[in-house]
């Protein structure tokens, strides 16, 4: 996998590219990501007879894998020579998506273990086995990271559209990246069926996706061409 410059990658890309002695294509990295997590979900689901958790876990693995692919496509589109360095640094080098992930993950785990254990008990049972909890937490972190990345990508896109102007080809490419961000958010609605009995989590998820769509739509609308200065009259 060819490596972009430091400060111009998602944390996800940095981790994949940092494994010493291994040079994976993006497609192979995505396939391995899916197979590794899905195998663990199936193995623990079978061993502990938690088949309801297998369904939810499989959906989560699919969402995170699709999210990884969308993150790579978004990054590809905004690494062009005509894209302002300030925008690329704002999106990637700040690692704000990780900060958002920490907040989302901490809030979700606090809710699941301290306020309402019904969801985790429906998935893992009342006596949650340690290996299953371990895998559950890793997958939840992965999901929260995709949520944080979708939100930050939309906010960074809006900032870019307000601060800069672009020619036709570059503007079209950035709008496609914004549409990838919108799709990135929409994919996360796959969790809705598992949250029908959790109105707070359901509301937060739908609210998050709506916010991503609204902010991304503004980024697309405000992505403008350069100003044309009238030729001075002689």
From TrEMBL:
Which positions, given as ranges, span the membrane?
28-48, 54-72, 92-114, 134-159, 179-196, 202-223
Coiled-coil features, chain-numbered ranges: none
Q: Which Pfam families match?
A: DUF7530
Q: Which UniProt keywords apply?
A: Membrane, Transmembrane, Transmembrane helix
| Top-level division of the source organism's lineage | Archaea
Q: What is this protein called?
A: Uncharacterized protein
Source species of the chain? Halovenus rubra
Q: What is the lineage of its organism?
A: Archaea, Methanobacteriati, Methanobacteriota, Stenosarchaea group, Halobacteria
């Amino acid at each position: 996998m060819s490596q972009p410059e430091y400060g111009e990658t998602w944390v996800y890309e940095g981790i994949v590219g940092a494994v010493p002695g291994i040079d994976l294509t993006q497609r192979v990295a995505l396939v391995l990501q899916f197979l590794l997590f899905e195998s663990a979900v199936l193995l623990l689901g079978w061993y502990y007879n938690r088949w309801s958790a297998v369904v939810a876990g499989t959906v989560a693995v699919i969402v995170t894998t699709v999210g990884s692919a969308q993150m790579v496509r978004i990054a590809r589109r905004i690494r062009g020579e005509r894209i302002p360095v300030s925008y690329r640094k704002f999106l990637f080098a700040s690692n704000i998506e990780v900060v958002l992930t920490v907040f989302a993950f901490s809030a979700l785990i606090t809710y699941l273990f301290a306020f309402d254990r019904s969801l985790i008990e429906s998935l893992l049972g009342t006596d949650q086995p340690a290996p299953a909890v371990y895998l559950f937490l890793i997958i939840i972190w992965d999901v929260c990271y995709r949520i944080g990345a979708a939100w930050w990508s939309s906010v960074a896109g809006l900032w870019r559209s307000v601060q800069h102007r672009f020619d036709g080809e570059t503007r079209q490419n950035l709008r496609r990246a914004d549409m990838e961000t919108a799709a990135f958010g929409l994919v996360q609605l796959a969790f809705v069926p598992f949250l029908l009995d959790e109105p707070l989590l359901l509301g937060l998820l739908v609210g998050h996706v709506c916010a991503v769509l609204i902010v991304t739509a503004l980024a697309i609308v405000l992505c403008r061409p350069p100003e044309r200065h009238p030729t001075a009259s002689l």
